[in-house]
Amino acid sequence: MEVDHLADERSKAQFDVEEMKIVWAGSRHAFQVSDRIARLVASDPAFQKDHRARLGRKELFKNTLRKAAYAWKRINELRLTEEEASRLRFFVDEPAFTDLHWGMFVPAIKGQGTEEQQQKWLPLAHKMQIIGCYAQTELGHGSNVQGLETTATFDPQTDEFIIHSPTLTSSKWWPGGLGKVATHGVIYARLLTNGQEHGVHGFIVQIRSLDDHLPLPGITVGDIGIKFGSGAYNTMDNGVLRFDQVRIPRNQMLMRVSQVTREGKVVQSDVPRQLVYGTMVFVRKTIVGDASNALSRAVCIATRYSAVRRQFGSQKGGLETQVIDYKTQQNRLFPLLASAYAFRVVGEWMEWLYTDVTQRLKANDFSTLPEVHACTAGLKSLTTSATADGIEECRKLCGGHGYLHSSGLPELFAVYVPACTYEGDNIVLLLQVARFLMKTVSQLGSGKKAVGTTAYMGRVEQLMQCRCDVQNAEDWLKPSIVMEAFEARATRMSVACARNLSKFGNQEEGFLELSADLVEVAVAHCQLIVVSKFIEKLQQDIPGKGVKNQLENLCSVYALNILHKHLGDFLSTGCITPMQASLANDQLRSLYSQVRPNAVALVDAFNYTDHFLSSILGRYDGNVYPKLYEDAWKDPLNDSIVPDGFHEYVQPILKQQLRNAKL
Ligand SMILES: CCCCCCCC/C=C\CCCCCCCCCCCCCC(=O)SCCNC(=O)CCNC(=O)[C@H](O)C(C)(C)COP(=O)(O)OP(=O)(O)OC[C@H]1O[C@@H](n2cnc3c(N)ncnc32)[C@H](O)[C@@H]1OP(=O)(O)O
Ligand SMILES: Cc1cc2nc3c(=O)[nH]c(=O)nc-3n(C[C@H](O)[C@H](O)[C@H](O)COP(=O)(O)OP(=O)(O)OC[C@H]3O[C@@H](n4cnc5c(N)ncnc54)[C@H](O)[C@@H]3O)c2cc1C
User: Ligand 2: does its nearest atom lie under 6 Å from the Cβ of 142?
Assistant: First the structure.
């Protein structure tokens, strides 16, 4: 009979876990789909993944190709919908070339291609008759997209573009799927016609033959080599690519934003040029949604293990203390649990925001694009940085055993951490938010209304002067008080930065000089967005016994922990007094006590299978020690009692020592 070592913990829960699972999934339908697909993947031996770290790169990669092909076969056999297929990809839990095909190549054609181009290329891509990648970054430039060097020169004689890599630094470098698999790519290059330059645009370029998969003439392509961590992101073929005067037909430039005529004239359509960057906005919003997946996974492991693990505190020979009962453990773990829920909520809101802007764009309303760019960039940065740091904190929360591969945490960290860099370096993205905020502040007096997530700045006069109303610790549970403190902090920091900027004769010079402060302003604004979206969510009717109450506690933990961590901002801008800061901390401690009995149930609500977690420490049944012990013996190093190489290298040293001792 299987014993549930965490049964006691589960019996303490003060809320309906099944209802919380639905809140986490987003809807009853989403929960049912997710649950069904998770079980399907977990029960299929073809999706086994616990041996990945022991494979060499070639074997690992071949294994990924096999899994991707098998996944595609199952998707077709079972006629999975797009939602189901994307859940399948999530639970298969292995980065692959297919991510870039579906996640960037297809969206780039949809977002930047004309109707005609979509009709030609999308059916091929949807049936995977071609496999695409997104090749923007080069050896010399990633963040600075306008600095890309690859050229696309129009040749009016043949009605073609000549794609060329003029320098070593213009080699495409990093694109996922490019290294070994992609047949095509959306390639970003500087458009040149009639001797004039017209900025960076996307072009569909065939890279490899559809017959023998060899590179087409003029193309040099390969993988860029092993990346951070064993297994991990090495299932992906990030690639290098060079062009030597490769010709493509004119109609393979993505022409929704700008068109090149037969004569080589560049015509701008009525959509803003920034739509060339549209695929990045789409992926950044996806990454925000995904942050809660990665963080919740780490938190689930650390929470279950913290309830199993005991150290010190035995009274009269009784059980030692569960490490989850130490306030220091709670102070590190519960804010991460709260962040996982907060990012879930903000990810949902981001989906709404993206759907909204897509509909507006279709109706030629581009008014919300700058704000959507700022939100996706800022929240991508905030959530991925917090998640990467959070996964590492969870590893430490699991003590020594967290460092074992079988804890599931090292691989999770290695796969996740590049999210802080790809799709825009997190600092570079925060600087984009800061630019947007400085622009908003500068327009405050001009009659232009601050809208959307910056609407609070419309109350600048009130927010510059308000005094926090907290008299006792419980006051910090009031949403209006928390909101005002966060809004006042973000406004005061923005205004202070704007004032400092105005002291510089040259704005760009000022921006560079003050960039560290500007990043902090952007963080304050993004944290406010998360807090406000969580509070907004709690205005809704949320069914299920105790569910809303748990979410309210988590929302308060999220906000008050940020307040505590960024106390310097709140105090130096005069938003709160030192006494009120101390009361916030008292409230936070009290909230930890309320979260404690519900902690295991709150991570059960993520509904992760043991297959997906792939963590002995995070097992649902908490049966950690026997399984850790059992697993150690499965290591190939334990196949033989005396390891290969011992007699050859170590024994001679021992023998020498013995001889020396006898002399
Ligand atoms: C197992 C197999 C199963 C098979 C299953 C099949 C089914 C599967 C189903 C689904 C699977 C899907 C999986 C999806 C997962 C996706 C995975 C993705 C993995 C990630 C890979 C990573 C890829 C990359 O990294 S791609 C490269 C990204 N590169 C960057 O992000 C570069 C960053 N740099 C920039 O973005 C810009 O250069 C910049 C913004 C920093 C600066 O640009 P600039 O110099 O041109 O601009 P300015 O600063 O001058 O600004 C001008 C102006 O424009 C505004 N602006 C800037 N950017 C944008 C924008 N994006 N949108 C709108 N506006 C923008 C800016 O604010 C300025 O405005 P002003 O008003 O001030 O003028
Ligand atoms: C795993 C992985 C997968 C990727 N997949 C793809 C892909 O499929 N397709 C693709 O095209 N690309 C891909 N990339 C590339 C990725 O998008 C870039 O690496 C990323 O945009 C960062 O650019 P960079 O490497 O040029 O960093 P850099 O800009 O060189 O950053 C280096 C440092 O400089 C700082 N910095 C840069 N500019 C500024 C500034 N203006 N102000 C202050 N500090 C600054 C940064 O903060 C950072 O600390 C991938 C990268 C990785 C790691």
Answer: yes
SS3 364: coil
DSSP 366-417: -TTHHHHHHHHHHHHHHHHHHHHHHHHHHHHHTGGGGGSGGGSHHHHHHHHG
Ligand 1 contacts CB of residue 117 (under 6 A): no
Q: Which atom of ligand 2 is nearest to the CA of 142?
A: 26
Q: Is 176 annotated as a binding residue?
A: yes
Does residue 511 line the site of ligand 2, with CB under 6 A?
no
Every domain of the chain and the residues it spans? 105-269
ipTM of the complex: 0.97
Strands 246-249 and 219-223: unpaired
Is 513 a catalytic site residue?
no
Query: pLDDT for 488-544, tens place per residue?
Result: 999 999 999 999 999 999 999 999 999 999 999 999 999 999 999 999 999 999 999
Q: What pLDDT, in 10s, does the model give residues 329-364?
A: 999 999 999 999 999 999 999 999 999 999 999 898
The CA 418 to ligand 2 mean position distance, Å, reads 10
CATH superfamily of 105-269: Butyryl-CoA Dehydrogenase, subunit A, domain 2 (2.40.110.10)
3-state secondary structure of 26: coil
Which of these is catalytic: 9, 423, 484, 552?
Answer: 423
313 appears as a binding residue in the annotation: no
Model pTM?
A: 0.97
